[in-house]
Amino acid sequence: MSTQFALAKNISFLGGLRYSHIIIDAQFDTSLFDLPFTEATINTGALTGTAGVTWNPNQTLGWRLNLGTAFRAPNIDDVGKVFDSEPGSVVVPNPDLKPEYAYNADIGVSLNFDTVVKLDFAGFYTILEDALIRRDFSLDGESQIVYQGELSTIQAIQNASRAQVYGFEAGIAIAFSKELKLSSQYNITKGFAQDQQGTKEALRHAAPAYGNTKLIYNKAKLTLATFVEYNGQFDFEDLAPSQQNNAFLYAADQNGNPYAPKWHTLNFSAQYKYSKSLQLNATLENITDKRYRPYSSGLSAPGRNLIVAATYTF
After folding, report:
1. How far apart are CA 203 and CA 47, in angstroms?
2. Which residue pairs from 11-16 have beta carbons closer than 8 angstroms and sit at least 24 positions apart in sequence?
3. How much is the pLDDT for 38?
4. Is residue 228 within 8 Å of 213, Cβ to Cβ?
């Protein structure tokens, strides 16, 4: 259910409510894995909502404020899957999981100077209660088991006491002419989890700072773009504990510890609309042939890469 209406001449409100209910009844076959439990049951629901206000006092300035809640129940993988997450570790089911709840807020301001220069700034803050994260676990008092012939540390998805994610984003767009435009975006995100003892640790899913800058030329049927994609660095101390133990995913710093180096790529694309039906595209990615890995992927991205495509619409 959602609604939208004007509070005043330059102020509008948008809000909504949603109810979700999740039911899971899982039975475990202990002949495959000697687990100390035989079932996992989840039967839970939550009412979540959003509310936002925008205020545009004039054609140049615009404000926005949004508040919201969110809910995620553990899924069948969280409560019932056994898998090897990395060498030397095995993730086991956890039948005692509870849902996580998020409470978030963001505020932003935009400035539009005669559509020639546009600026946009926003900050956000999210609190996760009972956040679902992966941590070391134990089965029948044991912290390690032999899994597929290898002694492995036992881990499981568990509820943290609380997690917090916050950040800032900024953007600029400049129209040098009708044909030539420049745009740039930059995002910073930080996050940490806190257990019941008050110990804080970095969140895996809070990525390093990232952004892009694009220079676009468009005239008639032709569009040309040069753009740079960039990503910030995470030192060893910035990584979540689970990632500090995953050296195979990252580069090694001067002390031999894993870390995520910063990187950027230079790219070029061209688009030609031959007709209403036919469009031709070409993109040359990573022109400088830089070797890099997207954060936490464990896979090196492609080097210099050319993509050519044609689209025909009947």
Report:
1. 26
2. 11/53, 11/54, 11/55, 12/53, 12/54, 13/51, 13/52, 13/53, 14/50, 14/51, 14/52, 14/53, 14/54, 15/49, 15/50, 15/51, 15/52, 16/49, 16/50
3. 76
4. yes
Q: How do residues 116-169 score in pLDDT, each as one tens digit?
A: 999 999 999 999 998 888 888 887 777 887 777 778 888 888 888 788 999 999
Residue that the structure tokens 């036919």 belong to: 278
- 3-state DSSP helix/strand/coil % of the chain, to nearest 5: 5, 60, 35
H or E element: which one contains 77? helix 76-80
Of 294, 307, 230, the residue nearest 268 (C-alpha): 307
Other Cβ atoms within 10 Å of 80 Cβ, number: 19
Q: Which residues contact 8 (CB under 8 A, 6 or more apart)?
A: none
Nearest Cα to Cα of residue 20 among 2, 44, 40, 42? 44
pLDDT, one tens digit per residue, over 30-51 is 666 667 777 778 888 999 999 9
Give Cβ neighbours of residue 77 (< 8 Å, ≥ 6 apart).
none
- Alpha helices, DSSP H, located in 81-216: none
Nearest to 165 by CA among 124, 212, 219: 124
pTM for the full model?
Answer: 0.79
Partners of 173 in the β-ladder: 118, 183
